[in-house]
Amino acid sequence: VDDESIVISSKVWKEAPPIADYSGSGYRVIEKAAKAVVPNAVVVPSLLFGATDTRHYTELADNIYRFRGVSVAFDQAKGVHGTNEYIWVDSFEQSIVVAKQIIKLGSGTP
């Protein structure tokens, strides 16, 4: 920014959020929701590299799950956060259905 009146600052974030309980009820809700929409889905815990907004929620929840209900083909994974990043429209629509299932199952709504 070529303007001396604008000051840009940032906070250094050094501590990672705690590991979420993948044997807990929250994880089971995610797993059930994914399998309700994509019956042959394999839901497994994994690591997410990078700083996300989760650091702002550690005081609000015991477990923070970083989950997206999208299907990504192997060749698409190369472009994540890079040139020509994309997902298919039907995968995006599927992620909305999965999110609705998470809300229903997590709230106990039949």
Explained architecture:
- The chain has 110 residues and is mainly α.
- 33% of the residues lie in helices and 0% in strands.
- It has helices at residues 25-37, 74-77, 89-107.
- The mean pLDDT is 86.
Q: What's the helix count?
A: 3
* SSE-based structural type: mainly alpha
- Number of DSSP-assigned strands: 0
Average pLDDT number: 86
Biggest beta-sheet profile:
none
State the end-to-end distance.
52 Å
**Shape field:** globular
Helix content: 25-40%
pLDDT < 50 runs, ≥5 residues: none
CA-atom Rg in angstroms: 18 Å
SSE layout:
Elements: H1 25-37, H2 74-77, H3 89-107
Helix pairs in contact: 1-3
Distinctive features:
mainly alpha; 110 residues; single chain
Describe the structure concisely for a colleague.
The protein has 110 residues and is mainly α. It has helices at 25-37, 74-77, 89-107.
